[in-house]
Amino acid sequence: MDSQINTTINLSTHPPTLLCEIQDRIRGSLVRPSAPLIWSGIITAIMTGGPLLIAIYAAFADLFEDPTKGIDLSSEQSIAELSSLMSHAVSNVFISITVFLLVALPFSYGAALLGLRAIRSEAPQSTDLFAPYIRLWDFSIFSIVLILSGFIPLLLWIIVASIVSFVVSLVVAMNEGDPTGQIATILLAVLIVGIPFIFLSIYFQFRLVYAGIAIIDPASGRMGALPAIAKSWRMTRRQNGPLSLVALYAIWALIRGTIFGYLIGFFTRGLPEFVALFCGSYDVLADRLRSHEQSLHGSQ
User: Fold this and answer.
1) What residues contact residue 117 under an 8 Å CB cut-off, 6+ apart?
2) How many domains does the chain have?
3) Taking the chain (300 residues) in consecutive chunks of 10 residues, what is each chunk's mean pLDDT?
4) Is 6 inside a domain boundary?
5) Residue 30 belongs to some domain of the structure
6) Helix then strand then coil, % of the chain, to nearest 5
């Protein structure tokens, strides 16, 4: 019975081992990156960087429009003004999240499918970029789960931070002092409280990130949302350390391609390698899981 249920990757993986295996798998596609792989990187950069820039602008829109405008920290209304500013920023950020959910995320995974075909030496299909919209129902369920798994911890942070900031504000209000120092104390307490919630949000993103590609991957049979989420969860079990190393190396690939490629290398080397590492990690972990499940079924 246990062997039938336990279909996860139980063997621990040393971080360099997974990275080396991924590099071996994608090396051929990086000797001379194909046009689909390059376009996959460019589209991914636009779809992920665009909403991030919009969110940053939305969060600090008032400051960008009027740099001289600020909060009078010497005023008794300083904390109220700060709360109003933060509420306005949060509402603007949620607008950018909507854009990310409806546009950026589907096209990012469509671009990932192009990259996946490139490292598999398969010809791209005309519908690859729009594959998430073709599987709209399943991909929508995955998108909602992915967003909620990332933002529920952050929402809990907001709730806990509100309580902590209220308590801290009462404590600092009992002591006469510089309003600047009081607000700095409140913000510092909020940031410290938020550290575990931020790591929890990142953890869930690591565990669920491959479900989107499993939904549209022809090799996986284009599975439904829930089976894809379960597959991603099994694939990434005990892989947080190795995948963190892969993520750090992917960031280094972007920097290295930009520096040694005289800026243009960001598009011709850095981004293709970044996408290839993501697609390669999915391909390697999916193969490991498949082999593990086949060995379990064979031993029954």
Assistant:
1) 36, 123, 124, 125, 128
2) 1
3) 39 70 93 92 87 64 52 51 60 72 91 95 93 94 90 83 74 61 71 85 92 94 92 92 92 89 86 95 93 76
4) no
5) no
6) 80, 0, 20
d(CA 269, CA 248): 16
Q: How far apart are CA 93 and CA 50, in angstroms?
A: 13
Residue 101 resides in a domain: yes
Residue that has been written with the tokens 């694939």 in this structure: 235
Lookup result for tokens 């293709």: 272
> Could you list the residue range(s) of the whole structural domain that residue 42 is in?
16-21+37-299
* 32: in domain: no
Residue 139 DSSP class: H
Burial 104-136 (b: 16+ CB within 10 A, else e): bbbbbbbbbbbbbbbbeeeebeeebbbbbeebe
**What one-character DSSP code corresponds to residue 66?**
-
